[in-house]
Every structure is written in C-alpha cells, then in structure tokens.
Amino acid sequence: MSKVGTDERFLTVGPAKSGTTALTYAVAAAIQATTVMFEEPPEMLVRLPAGGVAKVLYDHFDEQRLLRGAAFVSHRMLLVRDPRDLFISRLLYVVSSRREWLGDEALMHRLLRMLWDKQQSPEDVNLLDVGALLFGDRQEAVCRLMGPIERYAGFLSAQHQNWCVVRYEDFVAGELASLESYLDRPVGHRPTIDPQYRRVARSCSSGNWRHWLSSDDLCHLRQDFAPLVEVFGYGDDWESASAPQILPAHSWGYMTSLIEERRCFFGLPSLTLPEWLLAARGQRPCSICGALCFDAGPRGRRALNGSLPHCRQCGSLERHRAMFAVAQALSASGPVKPRMLYVSEAPLPGAALWGSPRQVARACAVEGESRQDLIVLDHGLELARDDVADFATLAGCLNDGGVIVADLGNPLGKPRTVEVRQAEGVYGGPRHYGLDVAQRLRCNELGLSMRVLVVADPGTDTELALHVFSRGEHVQHSLGLKFASIIDGRIVAAPV
Predict the structure, then answer these.
(1) Which of the two ends of the chain, N or C, has the fewest CB atoms closer than 10 A to its terminal CB?
(2) Is the pLDDT confidence value at 487 over 50?
C-alpha cells in the first residue's frame, strides 16, 4: 500500500442518505486520514490538508460551487444509490430537521403508528401516504424528496468520467475492487463512524424498496423514477418481494429513536410515547406505580436493553424498582407488614420519610419511631461527609430483626473504597465503595452481617448489586449465599 502523497486530498459527494458518511469514514480509515471535514461548504476544500478527507452533500450546494471546490482535491468520488431506496431513506430521515414537525406530538404519534402498521403489513400501508402525512400531498412529498436526485442524475451524467463512481450496493456488499484500484489501497466496508453521526445509519443494506413499496406505491412511482433508475444503472427490474418483511429496527424503532434524539437536540421535552408503542418496544409497566409513561434517564440515558428507564408518574429509575422488589420480597417473608423507612436525597411516592441518613434518623427520634423493620437506602451514603457515623446512626434505628437494603453503586468491581475528593458540608464529593464496604462501615462492631443481592429491575431487566445488612438470623438463612436473586417476588439463593 502506498503512502498518501503530500498533494493527495480526498472528496466524497452524494445526495443525503446515499451512504456518504459511511464511505467518507471508510476512505478515512483506508488512507489513515489526518483530517475528516464533514459537510462544510465547498469553499472550505481549499483548506483541506494533505491526507484529509471531506464529505459534501450534493443537496446543499449548486454545481458550480461544488466543482470549484473539487478542483482543490486529487481524488473525487461520487456515490450513487438505487433511487427507490433513496426515496425510503430520505422520507424516514426528513423529520429529523423539522422542528415544527418534531414538536407536534399528535403528528409524531400518527407517523409512528403508520410505520408500525406498515411494518406489520407492508402491502396494506402505502409509503406515499406517509409522505402525504408530512408534506400534505403525495406528489409534493415526491418532488421535495426527489427533486435533488433528479438534478444529481444530470450532474452524474456530465461528470462521471472525471470522478470515481461508487455504487452504494457494491459498497455495503464489500465489492470494492474499482474503488481500491482508484485509491491504490484496500478499503473496509464496515468503518467506525463518529458517534455523533451514527443516527444517519438505518439499515445499511440495499434492495429494501422491494419490501417497502406497496403495489400502489410502485404504480404511482414507476413513471417518475424509471428515468432515474436507468441513469443510475439499475436496469428495469420493478418486481417487489413476494412476502415483504420490514424489521422494526428499520422502521418505527428507528423513527422513535430518531425523534427522541432530535427533540432533545432542539430543546424539546421527551416525546410522550403511546401505550401501544411502549408495549411494542417491550416496555413493561412500572412495578411501583403501574404507569406506562416513561422517558430517558438523567442526561438522556437509556437502560442497558435500550428501553426508557424513568417513570414519568412516580419518578422511579432502575434502582428504585429493584429496591422495591427486594422490599416486597422481605415484606412477604414475615407475618406482619414491616415498618419501612425510605432514605434518599429525593422523595419517592409512598415513602413515609425521606432525606439524608442524619435527617431521617433525627425524624425517627422525634416521631418516636426509632426502631424500624426495613430501611431502604437509596444512594446518599456514598455522598455523606462521614459515612461511617451516618451508617451507625441508621443501624441504631433497626429493631433486632431489622434489615437495611442499600444501593451503594457497584462495589463488586473495585477492591477498595476510593475517596474521590473531600468537600465542605454534609454532602460533598462522591466516594466509590469497593469490596471492603463491610469492613469500612464496621459491620462487625454494629452486630450486622452483610449479603449482596443481584437484583433485576422488573421494568428493564437491568441487574444491580444491592447490599443487605441485617441482625436477624432468619434473613441470613433466607439469603443463604453471598449472591442471590429475586424470582417471582421471592428471594432465592443462587450459586456464586
């Protein structure tokens, strides 16, 4: 493989949704690019350093500007894709740039429902009707989405001898001999793409139009698309799939994620997902309040299985539902419902008392409820200035058979507790507990034994390590081993 020359610069051009992002990063990896210039105006190509790669979308600039900029690069690539697949991809992505559409929850719900119905029965829902929902008219949707493609066809016809033409279908299939010959180096067809641009990828496959376009769609689109299909070199094959299939991840699943991401980008609140969609995504009701209204967690976080973790009705996250499951299992193990105390920096509906460990302990003393059967500790301890003293105070609130269930982060992955920083005030910087947590909290001196439960949040299946501190022999016996699980609402010991 030859080294990139001091005067070599690389440019990829194509319409939006033709695969330009993937091709750009594939070329960048092949030449070990020093710079990737992403969707800058053509005038910026004069500043592209040697060994750099640039991507320019044809849709955004007139041809003369594009050609003037392209004169400053040595390797120029044009990407072509089947116009029928282009229409599908462009239609499903166009909503991402329209704030007024994204902000209309009723419109987004109708769009998602149409895509759901389309995925369930591809022939019964016309893609042109999805376009009409957004643009108000079938033909308007075709003109707005495919007008740039018609202009690109003319540009391709005029310039194909001066550029390396790459077919999207060949690229995703790894058939890259002509491109590798042009670049004089091997090219991978599964490049690593900058995470901020990964939303543009949907199916990364070809020929999807055979499954997506209904008989009615093909009847209306063939006259408009036939010249483009011929210019782009895709023959005269218009046969649809005999048993069309559409994956959820390429239709309503993709659209749901795209809408959520772009609403966040535009500063819009999370989309309220209808119950049918939550059920379709496998979103189960909140095990605390029974609601089916969820959104993203802190900083837009999703659960490990991709579902939305934050219950909008009661405010619970994975750890709350996991601790609730433990509390329910412990409550069911005794003849009398235990006195329960919830300790947290934030309230949770149904908790009798809440606050920092010291605040709760003081409140217990004032109310004469100093002896508790069950204390649920939702974080807080790792944030305390003197966690050892605070834990001892809480332990003093337990009766002889009482239990503390605590979320202490994930100490199982660290050998020792680490103090990240010291800060003024009762609640300063965080500490990360390690496997020494029982020794650190002086459990032996307090007469407490410690067990670790590996508990799954019933809503998202996310597993958390919860610590159970107790004096009661019946609790130790019911746990048995160091690791245990909650199965069907009961604590069941499991092998280490």
Answers:
(1) C
(2) no
At residue 182 the predicted structure's pLDDT band, cuts being 50, 70 and 90, is very high
pLDDT in the model for residue 110: 96
Q: How far apart are CA 378 and CA 357, in angstroms?
A: 10
Residue closest to 145 by CA, chosen among 228, 39, 41, 250:
228
Question: 3-class DSSP state for residue 340?
Answer: strand
pLDDT at 88 over 80: yes
Of 106-120, 267-281, 313-327, which one has max mean pLDDT? 106-120
Is the pLDDT at 258 greater than 90, yes or no? no
Interatomic CA distance for residues 60 and 370, integer angstroms: 69
- The domain segmentation of the chain, as residue ranges, is 1-107+128-206+213-236, 318-493
Assigned fold of 1-107+128-206+213-236: Rossmann fold (3.40.50)
pLDDT in tens, 230-246: 999 998 889 999 899 99
Interacting residues of 433 by C-beta distance below 8 A, sequence separation 6+: 382, 408, 409, 411, 414, 417, 440
Angle at 152 between CA 151 and CA 154, to 5 degrees: 70
Residue 116 to residue 251: CA distance in whole angstroms:
7
From CA 6, how far away is CA 226, in angstroms rounded? Answer: 43
The pLDDT assigned to 414 comes to: 63
Determine the length of the chain: 496
- Which H or E run includes 473? helix 473-479
Same CATH topology for 1-107+128-206+213-236 and 318-493?
yes
Residue with tokens 């389309």: 118
Provide the pLDDT for residue 317: 86
Alpha carbons 463 and 456: distance in angstroms, whole number: 4
Predicted confidence (pLDDT) at residue 223 exceeds the cutoff of 60: yes
Instruction: Decide: helix, strand or coil at residue 75.
Output: strand
Long-range pairs of 267-273 with CB within 8 A, sequence gap ≥ 24 = 268/99, 268/102, 268/103, 270/295, 270/296, 270/308, 271/105, 271/108, 271/295, 272/105, 272/312, 273/308
**Residues 6+ away with beta carbon under 8 Å from 180:** 186, 187
What pLDDT, on the 0 to 100 scale, is given for residue 334?
58
| Residues 188-211 pLDDT 10s | 766 544 444 343 444 455 688 999
Instruction: Please report the beta strands in 118-187, taking only residues with DSSP state E, as ranges in sequence order.
Output: 164-167
Q: How many CA atoms lie within 13 A of 108 on its CB side?
A: 25
Q: Tokens 């944030």: give the residue.
A: 383
Average of per-residue pLDDT across 88-100: 94
CA angle 133, 134, 138 (to 5 degrees): 65
**How is domain 318-493 classified at the architecture level of CATH?**
3-Layer(aba) Sandwich (3.40)
Q: How far apart are CA 125 and CA 121, in angstroms?
A: 7
